[in-house]
Amino acid sequence: MISPETILRVQAVLILETFTTAVYPPRAVGLSESFGDLAGVLAGGGLIIVRLKECASRCSLDTLRVEKLFANDIRLMRCWSRVSAIRNELWIFNAAGSWQFFEVPADGLREVFRDC
């Protein structure tokens, strides 16, 4: 039996493959897994690091709610945002079965809309 966590990871890989040239586990690009769950190479040569999370909410979350629910993850990701070649994103899968994507720069939080 395949775990729900594995299914979500496969979905995330498929989404990431739509806008990157390659997808790897973070350790394959020289990063600890504490950096994120997936890493992708962007067309311009930079890296995107993705942290995957689940949320019990059936509704879309606004940035303020995301900041509260995932404060520790966001704080850690902001430390990595100081490296300009790395783009950090938090991807949230909700109970209604849909994804929300947030870019985590050194300051603020911005929702990113993706076709998937």
Written account of the structure:
- By secondary structure, the chain is an alpha+beta fold.
- It is 27% helix and 28% strand.
- It has helices at 4-17, 63-69, 71-80, and strands at 22-24, 38-41, 47-55, 86-94, 99-103, 110-112.
- Strands 1-2-3-4-5-6 form a 6-stranded mixed β-sheet, sandwiched between helices.
- Strand 2 and strand 3 (47-55) form a beta hairpin.
- The chain is globular and about 35 Å long.
Structure in a nutshell:
This protein is an alpha+beta fold and 116 residues long.
Estimate the global geometry from the Cα principal axes: globular
Would you count the extended β strands for me?
A: 6
* CA radius of gyration: 13 Å
Largest sheet: 6 strands, mixed
Q: Give the low-confidence spans.
A: none
Please provide the ordered H/E string of secondary-structure elements.
Answer: HEEEHHEEE
Q: What is the terminal-to-terminal distance?
A: 25 Å
Specify the structural class: alpha+beta
Strand order of the largest sheet: 1-2-3-4-5-6
Mean pLDDT comes to 88
Question: Roughly what percent helix?
Answer: 25-40%
Strand content: 25-35%
Total number of helices: 3
Question: How is the secondary structure organized here?
Answer:
Blueprint: H1 4-17, E1 22-24, E2 38-41, E3 47-55, H2 63-69, H3 71-80, E4 86-94, E5 99-103, E6 110-112
Parallel strand pairs: 3-4
Antiparallel strand pairs: 1-2, 2-3, 4-5, 5-6
